[in-house]
């Protein structure tokens, strides 16, 4: 374990000091773009104003013979658009640590567009040692290329070993931004019997006890509940953000929305969008319900210093519910600052 007083020291001479607190940003969706696809890349300038984060994906879903084109395409799209002007985050997902592409990914991207890059998403993180490696390398590259804003790191939780080490990953470095669930790789790593990318499974259910000849009620359960809960606890305990990952069935918007909403209610800040049709779903889900915001605002107003006990509509409020209300009001303010339509609905002063 590193000494506490050394935790926030830059890891290379000339590298920027790590953030003490994460920048406060609205990240309802991390929108995936395949940078080797010229047609999709051409839409990025227009897309940038409509999503909270644009991510250029270099890893899985990019064919091996297109890795270089994807890297070049990412540099081109990063240079072509002023993401900061619309408050849009610019991220990339690099190839895995054991792949032949990762060094070229990081060397090229930090050299060419390191000052524009907010977050590097690292796939298949197994333990804190993976984060330490990336942390050190990024510091060296930031120093070499004069990058002044620290590049953050986001881990994908997508192996059984990673889940076993989730707390240590979350606390591995002050560079940690957060974590996303990777349900496809994780299912494979765990030996789960599903070919779906996220979402439920019709055979994963509980069944009521028999009661005579009556048909037995049965309901589908959430395969990802345990993992999301574990990830949210690890992230929030370390002051970083948890995200649901991808939902692969673009034809089933209702199931995507249900999965996103479960993650939102459990504490996640956002989800990935892989297709334009999922952006509106994420916007709908990762903003608090206006009725909840109105009630939360009443709680905050009824307890100006956040202490004591009061009754509102027959419901007891105290210091703890005040904190719950603050979570909702603070998020609503963040959403309202970016979305004038919701600002009008929330009516927050
Ligand atoms: C699947 C694909 C090929 C279907 O692309 P398509 O063109 O066949 O689909 P479409 O329905 O015909 O597209 C309609 C329009 O939207 C455009 N479009 C389509 N997608 C996008 C996009 N993302 N951003 C912006 N525009 C997009 C597309 O170009 C088209 O434009 P047009 O009307 O002008 O012809 C395409 O959607 C795509 O490449 N999406 C990203 C896929 C991806 O990044 N996958 C990896 C992340 S998930 C993962 O890795 C797992 C994980 C975490 O690791 C683990 O669980 O283990
Ligand atoms: Mg994966």
Automatic annotation (TrEMBL):
Family annotation (Pfam families): HpcH_HpaI (PF03328)
Coiled-coil residue spans: none
Gene Ontology BP term (one): oxaloacetate metabolic process
Example of a GO MF term: magnesium ion binding
InterPro entries hit by this protein: Aldolase/citrate-lyase_domain, Citrate_lyase_beta/mcl1/mcl2, Pyrv/PenolPyrv_kinase-like_dom, Pyrv_kinase-like_dom_sf
Family: Belongs to the HpcH/HpaI aldolase family.
Stated name of the protein: HpcH/HpaI aldolase
Originating organism: Methylobacterium oryzae CBMB20
């Amino acid at each position: 374990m590193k000494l506490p007083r050394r935790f926030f020291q830059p890891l290379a001479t000339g590298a920027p000091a790590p953030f003490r607190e994460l920048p406060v940003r609205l990240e309802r969706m991390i929108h995936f773009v395949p940078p080797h696809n010229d047609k999709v890349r051409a839409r990025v300038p227009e897309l940038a104003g409509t999503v909270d984060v644009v991510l250029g994906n270099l890893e899985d879903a990019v064919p091996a013979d297109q890795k270089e084109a994807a890297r070049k395409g990412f540099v081109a799209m990063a240079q072509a658009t002023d993401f900061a002007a619309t408050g849009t985050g610019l991220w990339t997902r690099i190839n895995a640590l054991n792949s032949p592409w990762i060094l070229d990914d990081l060397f090229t991207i930090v050299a060419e567009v390191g000052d524009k890059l907010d977050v590097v998403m690292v796939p298949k993180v197994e333990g804190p040692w993976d984060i330490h490696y990336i942390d050190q390398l990024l510091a060296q590259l930031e120093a070499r290329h004069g990058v002044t804003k620290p590049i953050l790191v986001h881990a994908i939780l997508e192996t059984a070993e990673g889940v076993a080490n989730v707390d240590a990953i979350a606390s591995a470095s002050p560079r940690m931004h957060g974590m996303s669930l990777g349900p496809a790789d994780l299912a494979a790593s765990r030996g789960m019997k599903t070919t779906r990318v996220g979402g439920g499974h019709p055979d994963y259910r509980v069944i009521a006890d028999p009661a005579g000849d009556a048909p037995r009620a049965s309901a589908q359960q959430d395969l990802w509940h345990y993992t999301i809960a574990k990830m949210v606890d690890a992230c929030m305990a370390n002051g970083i953000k948890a995200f649901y990952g991808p939902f692969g069935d673009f034809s089933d918007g209702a199931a995507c929305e249900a999965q996103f909403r479960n993650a939102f209610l459990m504490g996640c800040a956002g989800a990935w969008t892989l297709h334009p049709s999922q952006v509106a779903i994420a916007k709908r889900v990762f903003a608090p319900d206006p009725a909840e915001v109105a009630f939360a605002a009443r709680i905050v107003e009824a307890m100006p210093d956040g202490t004591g006990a009061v009754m509102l509509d027959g419901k007891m409020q105290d210091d703890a519910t005040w904190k719950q209300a603050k979570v909702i009001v603070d998020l609503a303010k963040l959403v309202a600052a970016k979305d004038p339509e919701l600002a009008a609905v929330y009516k927050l002063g």
